[in-house]
Amino acid sequence: SLQDAEFRRMALTADIAHELRNPLAIQRAHLEAMQDGILPTNQENLTLIADQNQQLTHLVEDLRMLALAEAGELGLNKRVVDLTELCQETLQRFEPQANQKKIKIFVDCGTESLHAVADKERLQQIHDNLMQNAIRYTPEDGWIKLSLREEGNQAVFKFHNNGPKIGEDALAHLFERFFRADKARDRASGGTGLGLAIARQLAEAHGGKLTVENHPSTGVIFKLVLPL
């Protein structure tokens, strides 16, 4: 266990350094080129530097949030949340983005309202991450199914898309920091590699859990379970 923990610590340090190096190198190269007069100090070049700075800011904020969540110190603004309403709002937020890719979103939020004591903004963050992933990996003219059901004294959200299945080896590591099942994806399209790790921590901070599995026929299902 100690060896495994040490290996993970070393890997995390290397991953963070790798993720920080590229945007910093791009910023420095452009700034030096403008200082030397090789590149003009115009809106286009300044925008590129600003984009890289925004990427760094996003990465640092994700790392900060993940560290707080793992330490149990992430403050949650809990109140009574209508989960059925949250389910419907998710469709409204992502339908325009899905339409651009000709993806159909099917939503079944149930007939009765389900409520939980939770931080609505953090739950939205989990939904946003799962929906963004689903849209990213769903082929054009594909579909995403979002459902909400009561099981016992728990609310169960399911996010199912008809994209490619995930290899069994990758499934075991999908919620690890900086893990990307598709190594070919660059940071611009694949995010910081922290989204799913944060989503699972946020689910656990609410006394729930977030799991993933391949569907027997097609695609992947993410399951978010929350206490009612």
Question: Care to give the gist of this entry?
Answer:
The chain is 51% helix and 19% strand. It has helices at 2-35, 43-70, 83-100, 120-137, 168-171, 187-190, 195-205; strands spanning 79-82, 104-108, 115-118, 143-151, 154-161, 209-214, 220-227.
Shape: globular
- Structure summary, number of beta strands: 7
Overall mean pLDDT = 85
Distance between the termini: 35 Å
Count up the helices. 7
Structural topology:
Blueprint: H1 2-35, H2 43-70, E1 79-82, H3 83-100, E2 104-108, E3 115-118, H4 120-137, E4 143-151, E5 154-161, H5 168-171, H6 187-190, H7 195-205, E6 209-214, E7 220-227
Parallel strand pairs: 2-4
Antiparallel strand pairs: 1-3, 4-5, 5-7, 6-7
Could you name the key traits of this structure?
51% helix; alpha+beta; five-stranded mixed sheet; 228 residues
